[in-house]
Hints:
The complex is a heterodimer.
Chain A: H1 16-23, E1 28-32, E2 38-39, E3 54-58, E4 62-71, E5 85-92, E6 97-101, E7 115-122, E8 128-134
Antiparallel strand pairs in A: 1-2, 1-3, 4-5, 4-7, 5-6, 7-8
Chain B: E1 7-18, H1 26-40, E2 50-53, H2 64-72, E3 78-81, H3 88-101, E4 107-114, H4 130-135, H5 144-159, H6 163-177, H7 192-197, E5 200-203, E6 205-206, E7 215-224, H8 225-228, E8 236-244, H9 261-272, E9 281-284, H10 289-298, H11 307-313, H12 329-333, H13 342-353, E10 366-373, E11 378-385
Parallel strand pairs in B: 2-3, 2-4, 9-10
Antiparallel strand pairs in B: 1-7, 1-8, 4-7, 5-6, 8-11, 10-11
Amino acid sequence: MTEYKKPLPRPTATSLPFWQAAKRHELQIQHCTKCGAHIFYPRDICPECLGSELEWIKVSGKGVVYSYTIARAPTHPAFAEDVPYVIAIVELAEGPRITTNIVGCKPEEVHIGMGVEATFEDVTPEITLVKFRPA
Amino acid sequence: MSLRGKAAIIGFAEMAPQKGDGDKTPLGIISEVARDAIADAGLEKKEIDGLLTGMAIGDYSVLWPSVVAEYLQLQPRYFGQVELGGASAAGMVWRAAAAIEAGMCQNVLCVLGDTRSTKATGTKPPPFPRLDAEFDAPYGLIAANPGYALIARRHMYEFGTTPEQMAKVAVDQRKNACKNPAALFGQKEITIDDVLNSRMIVDPLHLLEIVSPCTGGGAFIVTSAERAKRAPHRPVYLLGAGEAGGHCGITRARSLTTSLVKPAAEAAFKMAGVTPQDMDFVQPYDCYTITVIVTLEDAGFCKKGHGGPFVWEHDLTYRGDFPCNTHGGQLSFGQPGLAGGMSHVIEAVRQLMGRAGERQVKNATIGYVNGNGGIMSEQCSLVLGIQ
Lengths: 135, 387
Ligand SMILES: [Zn+2]
């Protein structure tokens, strides 16, 4: 197996549940029990109401492409072999937006508003990235 | 209380951007432009009692303002670092004015200098924000290019903005650069086709729509309106300023297409008591072509979404009906690391002092500057004018 050279996330105590869920191929985000906000990325308090009662919830993994770019040149040397690849912002059905890649279709087929669903890529034994594919 | 007319820029100096690393360190650049700006303002070094500087990618450490003060043997009574990325230079103007108005100091040196890489110093560049590294970088959303491509794509989707309209910004600004001997890319004009046929980097942004990193820097001196009366050049007064922030990574921005320029510009125009239509020229931060379009919309020069048709229908050159980035903008002048936003402030001052040479906008008395940092994350709008 070749070494994975692309940037990897370094989970913190705050974000660990998200990455642990990803490893189980589940998409979990935080939910504020006080104001009802759905929160991503993970935080220590709710950035909307500043409440501290946050719970982790499993979400649908469904969303739409909010915007995207097709990288025709690598945005980092380690992505050179992936060109062209799609970097996207997906708006989850629950509200928050998430940075991701759109996979499972040709880059030219991606469009804003396209329905997508989460798919999980085990890139190292420790880390699973959350990507999206056409729903 | 308002800062309107309370302080003025009375001198400046700018290093012509260099394509490569050059042999100077950021401190070398900073000290030379600082020296020249102090002389341009008709001041002596001992009269400088305020210092605002900003992070240099080419020489990154803690305690940077003290390093700069020590290097130049300044003894500031007010000093610090303005760390607003490309908005740092614009952010310095009102901070200097506020410090002067508050009685903290009299003459503030505002200075930025940076190198293309860390080669000259052997230092480590500052890291990207940790949360961007955790949630954006693993997917290739790294540095500015893809972030602005996401903005451009969404703008095209919402408003029908075309690649040709975006390219027009680069084409007109290049014409301005051809009248600026200091510009990095001022030798030859370009066409819309040149831009659209240049290499696609992050779709929809082509190579000629993206700034080229380089080495350079600039400095200006802010003093009180009272002291400005004795300056050798025509003083350029701060008439209005506004600032806005709220996100770092573009995924967390509330909107991709309506930017924080809106509140920043509204505040600046309100303080100045003028409207966008009163401006004789604009110097909007231009890391990418789309940045100019979004900025012009949100600052109120045209309706939201009409930025594409607006730049297409107007002549953005120094002799046109809407002079925009008359030095060539960073797209053609060059973007020296984190010092890039200096060029917009200095060009505005140059125009208002009547020192822009061949590219002088006729009868320029008031202009708009916008500094933009990060991925539309930090906005500082200024209205500058002569009295
Ligand atoms: Zn809440």
